[in-house]
Design goal:
single chain, 2-enoyl-CoA Hydratase, Chain A, domain 1, 26% strand, globular
Amino acid sequence: MTRQLKGNITSETRGTTEIVRISNPAKRNALEPDSYWAIGDAVNAANANPDIRCVIITGDESAFCSGMDLQAFLSENSAEAASHSLGGIEHVIYAITRADVPVIAAAEGAIAGIGASLACACDLIVAGQSAFITLPFGRIGLMPDGGAVATLAASVGRHRAMRLVLRQGAHPCGRRHADGARGRDHGRPCPRPRTRVGRGIPVLPARRRRPDQTRRQPGLLASTAT
């Protein structure tokens, strides 16, 4: 059963997997202020559920997320409203990076702006052929937020991340041998997933970590390209 949350976000439980979907196709899945809180709450709820072993955050075939809905953000004409939006960004990034279960971003199309911050905070990005990451913050006089600079650099390398930030270019995730986005390992095929949740979204069984185990570094980038 699909549950409709605030900010054009839906949540659905399939077996032991929680699927959180950004559903704003009219704006290529741009995130509204309430979207951040809804995604963060959904991840926290799934993490607290002992039956859930994996969380997938996804969009649709046209885009994972095109970034912040600037029209909605600029319509907030009070300090309290702006604080609600910026606090939501912190809330969702903390929820993802502190979750005990693996959080996977399943992406096609644009992974842009705050959407890139969201995806790179996840433990793994499963990217389709059409997926690309871009950080166009500089075009509107902003700096990347949501920890994107650190997590993207950890995934694709510091110099490539710096070029994306300064030149507002695009990193094609689906390219077979793109840095940090490999569908094969040293020429050997990747292990075939044991289960599949949705089309093109591989999910491997996961175990909860013990409290003394070290948190995995977020933002590992994978690709479905072959």
